[in-house]
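Hi, here's the filled form for the chain we discussed.

Project: internal
Contact: R.S.
Residues: 204
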Amino acid sequence: MDRLLEGYRRFRRDGWPDRRRLFETLAEHGQHPRALVLCCADSRVDPAMIFDAAPGELFVVRNVANLVPPYAPDERYHGTSAAIEFGIRALAVPDLVVMGHGLCGGVRALLQGPPPEFSDFVGAWMELAATARERAMACADAAERQLVGEFETVKLSLANLLGFPWIAERVSRGALRLHGAHFDIRSGALRILGPDGQFEASAA
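And the returned structure, exactly as it came back:
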């Protein structure tokens, strides 16, 4: 905690003076983010840094392996779905990006099985991506299986998003655009999912 507080003090000293007016504007007029980014909770993947976005520009939803569960409105707890609903229905973002990443531990647990200490929640959560595992396991090489698993979780989440009726309706009339992306931690390269179902490197 001490290091976090040291970081806060640096922010107040060095960052806050330059951004004070921005935060005051956001406080007075509310947030109007230009995109919802759904990504992994991995600490090495910061969407605001990757997209060089200022406070207020991105509405970020994070969970293990950037998964979108199927549309299932009931009395259970749905943290990811609730955040998506707020971003789409309350904030009316025009773009929604599902971003996977390299070296994803959630995908590794999906392919190899979660360690025993992750048995309470992670294993059941990753079962949402069982179809992605099937496609990845068809690869002979371990590194390729991992990468394909990362790609397939993005595709699965995009498909599940279209099961949300208020997302499908907005997409159909052009009010919302869905995008898939993959960030490579080692190289910093960003790949974008094309209409042909392939991930292609974005121009640097």
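Let me know if anything looks off before we file it.
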